[in-house]
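(Structure overview)
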Amino acid sequence: QIGDPIQEKKVADLVLAARDEGLYHAITDCGAGGLSSAVGEMGAALGVRVELERVPLKYPGLEPWEIWLSEAQERMVLAVPPDRWERLAELARLYRVEAVRIGRFEASGRLVVEAGGRAVADLAMDFVHGGWPRRERRAEWRPPRLARARFEPGPELLPALLAHPNLRSREALVRRYDHLVQGGTAGGPLVGAADHGPADAAVLVPQEVQGEDPPAAALAVGLATGLYPVDPYLMAFMALDEAVRNLVAVGADPDRIAVLDNFSWGDPNLPDRLGGLVRASQGLYDAALRYGTPFVSGKDSLNNEYTDARGVRHAIPGTLVVSGLGRLARASEAQSLDLKRPGDPVWLVGATGRALAGSHAGALAGLPVTAGGLPVFDERAPDWMRALHRAIRAGWVRAVHDLSEGGLALAAAEMAIAGRLGLDLDPARAPVVEALSEAELLFSESPSRFLVEVDPAHEAEFAALFEGRPAARVGRVTPEPELRLGSWRWPLETLERAWRGELAPDPRPHRPAPEPYAAPAVRRTPPRAAVLFAPGTNRDGDARIALERAGARPERVPLSELEPRDLAAFDLLLLPGGFSYGDDLGAGKVWALELRDRFGEAVDAFVAAGKPVLGICNGFQALVKAGFLPGGSGPPAVTLAPNASGRFETRWVWLEPEPGAACPFVAGLSAPLYVPVAHGEGRLAVRDAEALGRLEAAGQVALRYARPGGGEPVYPFDPNGSAGHVAGLCNPAGNVLGLMPHPEDHVFSWQHPRAHRGERGFDGLALFRRLVEHA
């Protein structure tokens, strides 16, 4: 099962294109069991006949049963009406995907598999899906003895929790993955004043509905492995509860949530392993009924065991991740956890009990894993989650965060760190189900709770809504950079350093946002723009939307179907980002070879005619390595090399237009751009200082990385260490522009990473409108 992300992208593109044309009416992937489960499940109510010799093989010599059961990746099975097969085959050639007919569905009620002209399987579908005798296994689970111990930590516990590997900032890992691809991120994994706080969930807008204020989907996970040795039932219930409350915290409707279960477990043939699995399944079942969350899919990985040096067999701790998917009516309703304004009241929603068993706080304080009290799941929780959702939709809430690991103390610290504001809370005001000490109130991990910053203008309505529900005002937001929780207090700098290792730089602008750049004058015929894409390109859709929004008429054009003579029919050419051909020979290298060898003369003519060309990220890399940028004769003076950090970088950056740039798309920009980068090889490297000087003198440096407020844009403001902090280059004539950042991923206000804080402007749409003006 060796994955191939480039093939996966090609298959996904084909499936979406076929979906849009209505070329199939059923689909499933070849997962566990390969064709046997995919085809067998699709034909369960009808019947199916499969010819295995038609199945494409990676290598010869496979037996029929191996072909039938193979779990090779990146394969989909589609039910295609006969009159639509030729069009699907045509699309498959267009997207460079191998597509074959391997059989047909038929009203036989049988599963027939043929190989070499003979049947190797012929079974009644009723038998396949209902005729097998149920296996019986022995399952055992014995509840552990609950321990007793006093929980009396000191203030040092909170910094220790923030520094714990399971709880500390994951920013260094998050930024190594492109979480902004397809331009649909309305709420990313990092939020707050410095884009460094931990989001409860991601909020995503599919490209099919992107607009000014579109509907959105929220994606979250729940995990409570600390409770596994206490009771797998509690672990499972808590995991689903956390997934749901994470979704509700970002604004998702609690009545429109679906979930998936993801089990990693030991050998289910052993009674104790199976007993824990059964117990977890019972907890998951009860939690799903409590919250009304249907399971739309799931996955399991069993038999995760090893034998130690003494020959003793061990299973991994049973682990359950619950993934949740929710819906927001509008992207503008998405919430974040960072505190917004000093003086705002802060409410705690949900009841607190003694729930420290299996907790991180208990472990750091020296409690036995079964000591400290068990979580109790309140039947009223769905009701108060619905009430919170109503308050969010009404606009009464400014920030909200769920309480999970570390309880109230950790949630308050994360909100304060992310918002760079203080908090003064009195935990004694919290709604409780039993008498608790101050430390227990601060670190209890009771489920279904939220810390909410409320707009003071609507606090009366908020209070009336929660009348009769477990909710109370527990404090307020303060301007002082200090967290005060009852008798305990900590400087925010101490907490942020414990959690993150260092203070995050401030990315906020030091000037007001300019007025939006005026849209181009309406033309009778909008300029026709070609958005090229190759296998592995993944931002062609983003670019298409940006061009369309800027007034062009974009078309996604696969290189496989483009002839050199076709280029002349377009007014504008755009090479988007991604990993063309997997970047197997280097970033953009294969694409560059194809551009130069197949399209060199056509592109030269396109450029000579003065038509605009824009290369973004991988497209910029291809233009440079094909010699179209920076242009001119002689050996290459520049290239794009691996980032100075030695790793992939995803973050938002400021771009300052270069005064005197020869590029007219940039010369008319009156303000910097605030756009994301997502690359591993974006460092502009020059042959020598004189080469950079010549580019600057010729006006070919178009954009540079900048630091808000001025000063040297050291890392992370310059995310890759480019020579001269250059982010974009143009050719001598100025009509070919390449840049590593992604202006196409900031053309709507909700794409701004701090839109939740009311920040707007400095978007990439201004560049696209200038581009379209010159087409």
Q: What stands out?
A: The chain has 21 helices and 34 strands. The chain has three domains: 5-130, 178-307+315-500, 528-773. The two ends are 47 Å apart (CA to CA).
